[in-house]
Amino acid sequence: MVRKTLEALAEGMLFFEGQLRDRGFKRVAGIDEVGRGPLAGPVVAAAVVLPPDVDLPAVRDSKELKPSQREACCREILSCASDVGLGCIGPSEIDRINILQATFQAMLLAVQALKSPPDFLLIDGPYKLRMEIHQEGIPKGDKRSLSIAAASIVAKVHRDRLLSDYHQRYPMYGFDRNKGYGTAQHLQALREYGPCPIHRLSFRGVLAVSGDGVKEDGDPSTKR
């Protein structure tokens, strides 16, 4: 019963892709991002092109999945997708151009990272990219389009892995658990140690608790 329910959900989530293929668009890319809200780390976007006969019944919005489920789904997506691209914009660039523009830039990079250009973009949210490609923004698209849901999972898994790697360098902030979000433990670490090089210095949550000093290489005794 659960399998049939998931299959029905996945079939419904291919509505947009099916409509576009009926109109002649063969390479439809779903676009989504993760990491707009955290106080640290990059914003990451993914672009995923799925084949017409794709079978991914367990794929849905990455926020609804446990980490182990996301990892398993990501492996499935990467094994069956026609094409996958990733775009990543780091904290210093986020501070320079603002998080919204950084999000758009990450999406552009994800599309450009595809092996072949898509002929239509399905974008999570009411957004349009500055690209000469047919496109449509879909509010709550990660719950309504399988391609967008797949992109949300790929982006989330990639970013979570990056933050786990950063934890090895800056262990006092707990990036392996909070993934850069402003948890109570993370905010307390900011008060105690100040920001490290992957913190977003323009974000209010960082400014409010840390002052201006940035620690070098995770050493609590060093400022620049």
Automatic annotation (TrEMBL):
Main location: cytoplasm
EC id: 3.1.26.4
A GO MF term: manganese ion binding
Record keywords: Cytoplasm, Endonuclease, Hydrolase, Manganese, Metal-binding, Nuclease
Pfam families reported in the protein's UniProt record: RNase_HII
Gene Ontology biological process terms from the UniProt entry: DNA replication, removal of RNA primer; mismatch repair
Gene3D superfamilies per record: Ribonuclease H-like superfamily/Ribonuclease H
Domain RNase H type-2: 26-215
Amino-acid positions noted as binding a divalent metal cation in the UniProt annotation, renumbered to this chain: D32, E33, D124
Cofactor: how and how many bound: Manganese or magnesium. Binds 1 divalent metal ion per monomer in the absence of substrate. May bind a second metal ion after substrate binding.
Catalyzed chemical reaction(s): Endonucleolytic cleavage to 5'-phosphomonoester
Top-tier EC class: hydrolase
Localization in the cell: Cytoplasm
Family to which this protein belongs: Belongs to the RNase HII family.
Function text: Endonuclease that specifically degrades the RNA of RNA-DNA hybrids.
Identification of the protein by name: Ribonuclease HII
